[in-house]
Design a protein that fits this description.
The structure is a single chain. This protein has 250 residues and is mostly helical. The chain has one domain (2-19, 30-248). It is 75% helix and 0% strand. The protein is globular and about 50 Å long.
């Protein structure tokens, strides 16, 4: 049980900016290959925070569009724009002429035009989807599902791709342990099935698979593997498509 709690805390520290160190400091560095099971759980919790903020904003009279912006602000604040940064960096990197140049650009802290456009599209798609769902209960459910499936996409990318670099956090973590990956993906799957009607759940799962598959194909062809930015991009693209599917099937 102590190891599971330590894994969960490590996943929270990795995927969010929540100060969990005051709860308990794990003994030694986290086993990143083992903690992957907790990624969808953390994603679902982050989504629940965004949904709660939407519900509060809607409850005090904010129209859906304004409440959606506050929800996005909460999501960005909780995660520190971690995945958004990955999406922007990967988008910028794809403008490079060679694999080495693409990876070099992705390490540059500056954001170029491709990155800005990718961020605008991601925020616009998610914000519009939240506003169109409108009902607070539907928004909470959708954000929990999208958060879980988005982090499930991270697990899939870690399983299917080799690291594009020999250094960096993504390379150090290695492939998730089979049991951890299975548990994480199962949690994302069950969360979707339990919270959404059958048709919506199926559409969300297909959308997440398409999102992760698109990022996988681009990363494999253009970068030769994954980086932390690729993982963040995978989560973002999957979330956008999942929310779109949930709006269409609502």
């Amino acid at each position: 049980m102590r190891a599971l709690v330590d894994d969960l805390l490590a996943a929270i520290q990795l995927l969010t900016r929540l100060p969990v160190g005051w709860i308990r400091t794990p003994e030694g560095p986290p086993d990143l290959a083992r903690v992957a099971w907790a990624y969808p759980l953390v994603g679902a919790a982050v989504g629940a925070v965004g949904g709660l903020v939407y519900a509060i904003a809607a409850g005090i009279g904010c129209p859906p569009a304004l409440a959606a912006i506050w929800s996005l602000a909460a999501l960005v604040l909780v995660t520190g724009a971690f995945h958004e940064d990955g999406l922007a960096d990967m988008a910028d990197g794809l403008g490079g002429a060679t694999r080495e140049r693409r990876l070099e650009i992705m390490r540059d802290s500056r954001t170029g035009s491709y990155g800005v456009i990718a961020l605008l599209l991601s925020l616009g798609l998610r914000g519009t989807a939240i506003a169109l769902l409108a009902d607070s209960g539907a928004v909470v459910t959708a954000l929990i599902i999208a958060g879980a499936l988005g982090r499930g996409a991270i697990i899939a990318l870690l399983l299917l791709l080799d690291p594009a670099r020999s250094d960096g956090l993504a390379a150090q973590g290695g492939r998730p342990h089979p049991q951890a990956a299975t548990a994480g993906l199962a949690f994302a799957l069950l969360t979707t099935i339990v919270l959404a009607p059958a048709g919506a759940a199926f559409a969300a799962l297909v959308a997440a698979g398409i999102g992760g598959g698109l990022v996988y194909a681009v990363a494999r062809r253009q970068l030769g593997g994954h980086t932390g930015d690729v993982l963040g991009a995978g989560a973002q693209v999957a979330e956008c498509l999942v929310l779109t599917a949930l709006v269409v099937t609502a």
